Every structure is written in structure tokens, then in C-alpha cells.
């Protein structure tokens, strides 16, 4: 049978996906990605703007309601309550200071009043001043008498004057204490707390005013909030509808692309299956035709040619193998067979023993197959003597010599050995002729089994691509068995 070819196990070519053969180029209605992205971005920006307005309205509505624990007004109230506690402490301390200052001031005023009244009675501040005026003589006699009386009175009231001096010191001490208490009233920490309380009170008043205003227009704010929420829902609905429409269009587009690809793939598979079926039918017919050719035809022809040549009945020196090698096949490049230079005229083929005898003259051996001439003999000097070609030698072309060796027949060593060679060839040819019909029938049966396997595998709809590899392995497995049968 012919050797397995690649046509028995063809490989499906990959469908073209580049260039103008892409399915995407033949399908319209692909959604515009850029247009979809721009639409989504515009809706997102509009939603953000509406959300900002809605948050502002909700904040104003919260102002009209009772403050919560995390509300700004609640935070301000808590901080102001804490500041009021601190202010109460500072106020108690100030009240104590004011009470003490008031007592000191009352005592001071009383002391000053008593001293002034006492000094107004005497008209002088002290007795030494009066004595200095009397001694200076600037006073009239009557005034001097009156002054002397006063001096005597002042001396008597000296103790009282001394008490007046001590009152001045007490008055100065009271004034110093009052100044010290006034300094304590100007505490910077108390001023800081008072300023912080005033700022918080201003903020609280502003929030209350805004809350009162929001409460008055609360219904209007509710209507505005509902309108903004409705607008927000509409925008989200548009965004979802846009995304859904884009996804549906994209799915429909890729479904069309997939359908075109599937149809193209099925068409390709159908055409390939049709081509493979035609190719298989052609190869099966060729295999059956080759199997029907009688076995050993070329071997029988070679035997006939060799017999005719050796018996002198034919001048054709080409065997069937040489003819086949020389005949070209249409569409196939002719093989370049290595050419071997022919032996020169008169040359006779030698056996290994004859060649050794020519080189080693000292090891003389007896003649084999008596009648053979041209063996080398040793002389006394040990040098080899040249041999001369025998007239009984049979010169065979290289092709015939190769054919004899292929049949396992020893080429004739001389003309006397031709009969033996012819007898061997006739025996070999008779064996080929006797076994030709049986071998041909075996070949036909083997081919029919192989054809049945091929048809069974190709007829199975669920078979995958590995089945063809198994068929190729079966073909390769059957070839060694056929070769062993022929041998």
C-alpha cells in the first residue's frame, strides 16, 4: 500500500480574523462609547449640582426644628453653660472684693471726716505752728493773747493731735488696700471668659434668628425640598436608563458579531468536511486500486530481466526498479540519485579473501572453487605480484548487482557460476509467483479494514480531532506488519 500522506489527516486552517474579514466590520449598530461616556458625565455633574442645593435646603429645615444633640446650637448652649459657671465663680469673688472695698471706703470716709472736723476747730494744724507765729511778732497783742490761749489749749489737746497723726497713717493704709482690691477686680482670665461668652452669645442669637426665619418659611422649604428630590430621582432614572440602553445595544451588537462568526465557522467546517470527504473518497479509491495490483509484480519482472540478461536472451540491462526510479511523476520534482562511476573495462569484482591475498603474500591459502584464476602468489621476496583479469569473469551493471543483493542471491563469480545464479533467480521468481495471489488478497483485506476504520471514525458526529491522530497511528502500526508479511 502507499505510505500514509498528510492528506489522510488534514489540519483545519485557522479562519482569518484580520483585515476586512473581521465580523465587526460587517455588523452595524455598534453603540458609541464616547457618546455614552459624555452623557453619563453630564448627568453626574447635574446630579452633583442638585445634591448641593438639596443639602442647603435640608440644613435650613433642620434649623427650624428642635436642636439635636449634635446641632450647632446645642454645642453653643453647652459651651455657654460652662462659661456661665466660670463667670459665676468670678462674680462671687468680685462680690467679696466689692464688699470689702465698700467697708474700707466707709471707714476711710469716716476717718477723713473726723480729722477734718478736729482741724477745723483749732484752725491750725499743730501747736508749733502757733508758737512760731507768736515769736515772730507779726501778730497783734489781742491776737497774741488769743494765740497763747489756743497754745495752751493745743498743749492740752496734744494727745488728741497725736491721735490725728495716727489717723492719717490709717487713712493711707486704707487707700492702699482699696487700690489693691481694685487691681484684683481687673482679672485677665475673667475678661477672657467674658469675651468668649459674648462671642458665643452673638452666634447663638444669629442662629436663633435664622431658625425663626426658617420656621416661618418652613412650608416653602418643604416644597423646595420635594421638588429637588423629585429632580434628583429623575436624573438617577435617566442615568440608569442610559446605562441599560447602552448595555442592551452592546449585547445585541456582540450577539450579531457572534452569530456571524458562528455562521462563518459552520460554513467553513461544512466546506472543509466536504473537501475532506471528497479527498478521502479519492484516497480510498486509490488505495483499493493499488491493493488490487498483483503482489511482487516488480520483483517478478526484476527476476525475469536478470535471468534473461544472464542467459543472454535480452540486451535490456535495466531492472524494474531502475525504470521506476527513472520515470518521473507529473508535478513531483525528480530526485537526484547519486551516480556511481562505472568500473573500467575488463575489471572483475574480487572477494575479500582475494583482496587480502593480494596484500599479504606470505599467508598463502588454497584455491577455492577450483578453476578460479588470478589469485596472488607469494614469491621469495614476499612482494605481491599483479593479477591479470580473467576471461571467465562476469561483469554486471551496478543496478543488476544491487537487485541480486536485494534478493539475497550471491552474484556469479564467473561464467561457470551463472547457472547457479539463474537457478536461484528462478526459485525466487517461482516463490513470488506462487505467493502473489495470497499476498494480494491479504493486502486487499488490510486496505478494506483500514478503509472501514476511516469511515467509522469520520462517520461519528461526536468524534474530535484526536480521532484522526489515532487513525494515523493505526496506519503506521499496520505498515511494519505488511513489511514482515512480504519478507
TrEMBL record:
Superkingdom field: Eukaryota
Show the ranges annotated as biased composition (Polar residues). Answer: 117-136, 376-393
Any idea which GO molecular function terms this record carries?
mRNA binding
Coiled coil stretches, renumbered:
190-290
Q: Where is the composition biased (Basic and acidic residues)?
A: 19-44, 468-480
Q: Which UniProt keywords apply?
A: Coiled coil
Membrane-crossing segments per the record: none
Q: Where is this region: Disordered?
A: 1-44, 60-94, 110-138, 356-395, 455-487
- One GO process term, biological-process aspect: intracellular mRNA localization
For this record, an example GO cellular component is: ribonucleoprotein complex
What is the name of this protein?
Nuclear segregation protein Bfr1
Provide the species name.
Trichosporon asahii var. asahii (strain CBS 8904)
Read off the lineage from the record. Eukaryota, Fungi, Dikarya, Basidiomycota, Agaricomycotina
Amino acid at each position: 500500500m502507499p505510505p500514509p500522506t498528510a492528506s489522510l489527516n488534514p489540519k483545519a486552517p485557522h479562519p482569518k480574523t484580520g483585515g476586512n474579514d473581521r465580523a465587526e466590520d460587517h455588523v452595524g449598530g455598534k453603540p458609541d462609547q464616547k457618546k455614552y461616556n459624555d452623557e453619563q458625565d453630564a448627568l453626574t455633574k447635574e446630579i452633583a449640582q442638585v445634591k448641593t442645593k438639596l443639602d442647603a435646603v435640608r440644613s435650613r429645615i433642620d434649623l427650624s426644628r428642635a436642636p439635636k444633640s449634635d446641632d450647632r446650637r446645642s454645642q453653643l448652649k453647652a459651651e455657654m453653660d460652662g462659661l456661665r459657671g466660670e463667670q459665676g465663680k468670678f462674680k462671687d469673688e468680685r462680690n467679696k472684693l466689692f464688699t470689702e472695698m465698700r467697708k474700707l471706703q466707709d471707714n476711710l470716709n469716716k476717718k477723713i471726716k473726723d480729722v477734718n472736723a478736729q482741724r477745723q476747730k483749732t484752725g491750725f494744724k499743730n501747736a508749733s505752728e502757733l508758737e512760731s507765729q507768736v515769736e515772730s511778732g507779726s501778730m497783734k497783742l489781742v491776737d497774741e493773747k488769743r494765740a497763747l490761749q489756743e497754745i495752751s489749749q493745743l498743749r492740752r489737746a496734744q494727745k488728741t493731735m497725736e491721735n490725728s497723726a495716727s489717723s492719717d497713717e490709717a487713712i493711707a493704709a486704707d487707700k492702699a488696700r482699696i487700690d489693691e482690691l481694685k487691681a484684683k477686680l481687673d482679672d485677665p482670665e475673667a475678661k477672657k471668659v467674658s469675651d468668649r461668652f459674648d462671642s458665643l452669645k452673638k452666634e447663638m442669637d444669629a442662629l436663633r434668628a435664622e431658625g425663626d426665619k426658617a420656621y416661618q418659611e418652613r412650608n416653602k422649604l418643604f416644597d423646595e425640598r420635594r421638588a429637588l428630590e423629585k429632580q434628583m430621582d429623575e436624573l438617577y432614572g435617566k442615568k440608569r436608563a442610559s446605562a441599560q440602553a447602552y448595555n442592551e445595544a452592546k449585547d445585541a451588537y456582540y450577539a450579531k458579531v457572534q452569530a456571524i462568526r458562528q455562521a462563518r465557522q459552520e460554513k467553513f467546517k461544512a466546506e472543509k468536511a466536504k473537501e475532506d470527504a471528497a479527498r478521502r473518497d479519492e484516497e480510498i479509491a486509490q488505495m483499493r486500486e493499488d491493493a488490487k495490483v498483483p503482489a511482487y509484480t516488480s520483483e517478478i519482472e526484476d527476476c525475469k530481466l536478470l535471468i534473461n540478461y544472464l542467459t543472454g536472451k535480452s540486451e535490456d540491462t535495466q531492472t524494474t526498479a531502475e525504470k521506476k526510479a527513472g520515470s518521473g511523476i507529473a508535478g513531483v520534482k525528480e530526485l537526484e540519485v547519486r551516480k556511481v562511476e562505472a568500473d573500467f573495462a575488463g575489471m572483475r569484482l574480487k572477494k575479500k579473501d582475494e583482496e587480502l591475498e593480494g596484500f599479504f603474500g606470505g599467508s598463502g591459502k588454497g584455491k577455492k572453487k577450483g578453476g578460479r584464476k588470478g589469485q596472488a602468489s607469494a614469491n621469495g621476496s614476499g612482494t605481491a605480484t599483479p593479477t591479470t583479469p580473467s576471461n571467465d569473469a562476469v561483469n554486471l551493471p551496478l543496478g543488476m548487482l544491487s537487485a541480486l543483493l536485494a534478493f539475497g542471491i550471491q552474484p556469479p563469480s564467473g561464467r561457470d557460476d551463472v547457472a547457479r545464479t539463474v537457478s536461484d533467480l528462478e526459485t525466487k521468481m517461482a516463490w513470488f509467483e506462487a505467493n502473489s495471489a495470497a499476498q494480494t488478497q491479504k493486502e486487499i483485506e488490510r486496505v478494506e479494514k483500514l478503509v472501514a476504520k476511516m469511515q467509522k471514525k469520520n462517520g461519528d458526529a461526536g468524534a474530535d480531532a484526536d480521532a484522526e491522530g489515532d487513525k494515523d497511528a493505526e496506519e503506521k502500526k499496520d505498515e511494519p506488519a505488511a513489511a514482515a508479511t512480504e519478507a
